[in-house]
Specification:
212 residues, alpha/beta, Rossmann fold, seven-stranded mixed sheet, binds S-adenosylmethionine, SAM-dependent_MTases_sf, transferase, S-adenosylmethionine-dependent methyltransferase activity, methyltransferase
């Protein structure tokens, strides 16, 4: 299907992408800590840990968490649209792959998954600050892409900045927005992050084809 986008929408997409590319070009972006957040560790290793299956990470950056998941038995596909980040993620994935971990890193747009080799279905989706920087007019496409690829009962763990943390074009995310954009999913948990500005961990369950 042909996409129709206004000039303003195209400008906004380009501005977001440029600002993210600049972060990676200028060195190590502030978020690239190399540390897997405890919220993901709890899901993978904690009491009631998920059974490893197929995972899709959106906006994987340099691949720390994709590799973490793969090292814990998940078959992982990770997507980011900044080439420099993808290169670094592939280097980490290569080292992990040599040790038996199953992780594939793709360069592409998380709101245009049909253009990538990511058919799924996936049991787990992980997004650490990607959705919250996506322009509003692309967010329904992002949600539809995940919904089409979700296994029954799939889990989605997302971390996002609240609105107004950054000046435009970085726009943030709210629980109400997720409830309205993710049809067929239930938002089962919202936990504030520990940052000095508003951040949230959101958990969604795919409900239309399976129980939450
Ligand atoms: C704040 S960074 C976080 C990166 C990584 N999740 C981490 O925590 O280290 C957001 C990431 O999402 C990626 N991103 C943003 N919009 C995207 C899109 N539409 N498609 C693919 N990647 C995107 C950016 O390139 C960037 O790597």
């Amino acid at each position: 299907m042909t996409e129709t986008r206004t000039a303003a929408e195209l400008d906004e997409e380009a501005a977001v992408r440029r600002s993210l590319e600049d972060y990676y070009r200028d060195g190590e972006p502030p978020w690239d800590t190399g540390v897997t957040p405890p919220e993901l560790v709890a899901l993978v290793e904690g009491p009631g840990a998920l059974t490893p299956g197929r995972a899709l990470e959106l906006g994987c950056g340099t691949g720390t968490n994709a590799v973490y998941l793969a090292r814990h038995g998940w078959r992982v596909v990770a997507v980011d649209f900044v080439h420099r980040a993808v290169q670094q993620a592939r280097e980490k994935a290569g080292a992990a792959g040599a040790a038996g971990a199953d992780v594939t890193v793709l360069c592409g747009d998380a709101t245009r998954l049909d253009e990538l080799d990511v058919s799924g279905p996936y049991d787990l989706f992980f997004d650490l600050s990607c959705f919250c920087v996506i322009p509003a007019h692309r967010r329904d496409a992002y949600a539809a892409g995940l919904t089409r690829r979700a296994a029954p009962g799939a889990r989605f763990l997302m971390f996002g900045y609240g609105p107004e943390v950054f000046e435009d074009p970085i726009s943030g995310v709210t629980a109400d927005e997720l409830r309205s954009r993710f049809a067929g999913w239930e938002l089962t948990d919202v936990t504030p992050g520990t940052n000095p500005f508003p951040t949230f961990w959101f958990t969604l369950h795919r409900t239309a084809d399976g129980a939450a």
